[in-house]
Known about the structure:
The chain is an alpha/beta fold. The chain has helices at residues 4-21, 28-38, 42-48, 53-68, 87-94, 107-116, 159-164, 178-184, 186-195; strands at 77-81, 99-104, 121-124, 140-149, 166-177, 200-211, 214-222. Helix 7 (159-164) links the parallel strand 4 and strand 5 (166-177). The termini are far apart.
Amino acid sequence: MQTKDQRTALEQAARKRIKDSHALDGDAGRLAEFYRGWASAYELEVGRDEYCGPVIVAELAGAVQTAYLARERPAIPILDAGSGTGLVGVQLDRLGFRTIDGLDLSEEMAEKARQTQVYRHIRAGVDLNGPLSGYPSASYYITVCCGVFTLGHVRPDALRELARVTRPNGFVIVSTRKSYADATCFEDEVRHLQDEGVLVPAQCLNDGRYIAEEGAHYWVFRVPEKASAPAEHRL
Ligand SMILES: C[S@@+](CC[C@H](N)C(=O)[O-])C[C@H]1O[C@@H](n2cnc3c(N)ncnc32)[C@H](O)[C@@H]1O
C-alpha cells in the first residue's frame, strides 16, 4: 500500500520521464538507452499517471474484430508495434486474443513483455522509423500501436509500414497524443497515405482519455483491398 507522498512522487517521476522522452528526436540509440533505464519502473510510474491508452486501443481491436472479421479472436494474428512492457498485450489477452506478436526498439522493455507470457513472439531492436525488414507484407489482421506516435519517438510516416504488414481489409489502430498530432500535422500524413491508397481512416475517437496531463486521438484505419492481391490474401 503506497502512501499519498509515495503516489505523488511516482506521478511526478512519470511526468518527468515522459517530458524527457519527448526530447529524444526519434534517435534510435537515445530512445533505446532511455527505455533501458525506464523498463523496471515504467508500469509503476505510468500507472500512477492514469495511463489508459492500452485499454482503449485493445478494446478498439475487440470492436473491429466483432464488427468486421470472420475469424474468432484466438486465431487472429495481431502485431503490437512498440509493445513496451506488454500493457496492450495483456489487455488483448483479457479480451480473448491469443495470437499476439510484439516488437520494440528496447530489449529491456521487450523482456518485460515476454515475462507477461501473453505474446506468441517478441522481437527487440526493431525501429519503427525504418522498414520493418523481417516482417512480410499482409501478415497481420490487426496492427496496434499505443503510446508510440508521440513526440520524440516515431514519425507519422511510420504508418506506411504498419499498413504494409497488415492484410487487405485488416486494421491499423494507433493512439496519437494531442500535442503530437498537432505538432507533426499527423492528419496531413493520413490524407497523403489515403490518396496513395495505403490506408483509409475508418473511425477516430477524438480527444479521448489517455494520461492525466493530456488526452489522445485514437485512430482506426482500414487497409484497402488491392485489386492485384491474390485471393488468399483477402479476409
Ligand atoms: C511510451 S512506451 C509505450 C509502450 C506500450 N505500447 C504501452 O502503451 O505501454 C513507448 C515504447 O515505444 C518504444 N519505441 C520508441 N521509439 C521506437 C521506435 N522508433 N521503434 C520501435 N519502438 C520504439 C519504446 O522502446 C517503448 O517501449
